[in-house]
Amino acid sequence: MNDLMHEDSRDSLGFAELIYGVIFNPGATFARVSRENHLFNGFVIFLSVTLLGSVVSFLGARDFSDLPPELAGAFTEAGPFIGVLAIVLAFISWFIQAGVLQVFAELLGGRGRALQVLTVLALAGIPKAFAVPFQVLGFFFAGSMVSTFLGAAVSLSVIIWSIVLMVTGLKEVHGLSAGRAAAVLALPLGTLGLALLIIAASLAGFVIPFINSI
Q1: CA distance 21 to 140
Q2: 12 has a pLDDT exceeding 50
Q3: Counted domains in the chain
Q4: pLDDT of 36-73, one tens digit each?
């Protein structure tokens, strides 16, 4: 694995080295991603993490004892279809996010390709796999203070870790500064928030006069 530090010693990173590098040396790993095509490995990692998360979520929602028998049976039978739909939506979201980030990265002077951004997003999802053991553990201690606190702490840690990986990846593949790479992530959220605010204000401007006229 130390070969990761010597980029000229190998033609391309292997699958295991890619995962190892993202966890322990993301800067050097994403620098390699900026020069090499690892989209297939990224696809496999994204699919694996998504499948794992879907299975764990399904197992965690198997308790339908509070529902009428008819509804409980319907939800149980629909479980596999819901899981497949969740995976399909995850892939659609993956492509949409990559496209949005690519646009903002280019607006800020980025020079990378959309395929590299897809790879970055896939690799940045690796931390989600580390949350799975804690999710499973939470099934056995559901409702306890320790389980709730631990679940929140793990979720927050995974989110922060994934954001750091995305910023690092965008920085390397697009040749941006850390600040601009962070802005690539922040600007879409800010734009979405502003759009929602405008929509809410427009609806309020329409609804409030209507209510007052009643």
Answers
A1: 33
A2: yes
A3: 1
A4: 999 999 999 999 999 998 888 777 665 555 556 656 55
Dig out the tokens for 188 from the structure: 């879409």
The answer to whether the beta carbons of residues 94 and 42 sit under 8 Å apart is: no
- Per-residue pLDDT of 110-132, as tens digits, reads 999 999 999 999 999 999 999 88
**Angle, in degrees to the nearest 10, between helices 69-107 and 39-60:** 150
First vs last Cα of the chain: how many Å apart?
72
Amino acid at 7: E
Q: How far apart are CA 25 and CA 164, in angstroms?
A: 12
Note down the domain range covering 188.
2-213
Enumerate residues 6+ apart whose C-beta is below 8 A from 107.
Answer: none
Structure tokens at 133: 């053991």
Predicted pLDDT at 4 = 44
Q: Which amino acid is at 155?
A: S
